[in-house]
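User: Some background: our group keeps a shared notebook of sequences we're curious about, and every so often someone picks one and asks for a predicted structure to add to the entry. Today it's my turn. The entry only has the sequence so far, pasted here. Could you supply the structure so I can complete it?
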Amino acid sequence: MNSELKKRIITSVFLLTLLMLMFFYTFVLIISVIIIAIILWVEFYALISKIFTKITRIEKSLRFFYKTISLLYLSLLIYLILITKTTNPDLTIILIYAILVSIMTDIGGLTVGKIIKGKKLSKISPNKTVSGSIGSFAFSLLLVPFFNNFLLNYNLFTLIFFTLIISLTSQLGDLFISFIKRKANVKNTSDLLPGHGGVLDRVDGIIFSIPISFLLFTFF
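Assistant: Of course. Here's the predicted structure to add to the notebook entry:
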């Protein structure tokens, strides 16, 4: 086992432990979500700053625009997560489901893409393949049988459809951040997480899948 893989495994164990603590202890959730959101904003703004390097009026305006939009988006995300956990336990299962679907989407894409390979999905992220995308959908659907008994208000067809939409959103979020990184000419958003890169590298799909999950399960 090489050192990079060891770092990746250790970091993954730490992140999973943190996720469990956030679920069981509200104060850990609140502190962690705020800290993570701050780090995400710093990493995203660092990417934008590398894209818009010329000090012109237009680029200053664009940097301010992206800075403001990302700050508002992350603030809304914090609100959704905290209000769900502290005031509406029934929605907590939806939050967990969104996170797990995104995780399974990443695992499926990585596993199937590495094994089958094949045609590239997009020039935005050369490592992603069509087979990996199909694997992402397939792995996300593995959660449906386990959560079908928890999400009783939704029939099996609806749950499958919602899961595919959440998985698609997670993949698009991943591609969007990959596009931003490509424009900024960087491989990772930072080196904060050994073996993984930055925090944004790890939760790029999750930060987009959570809002769409709430919209799907709440309004449809």
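Suggested note for the entry: The chain has a mean pLDDT of 87. The two ends are 47 Å apart (CA to CA).
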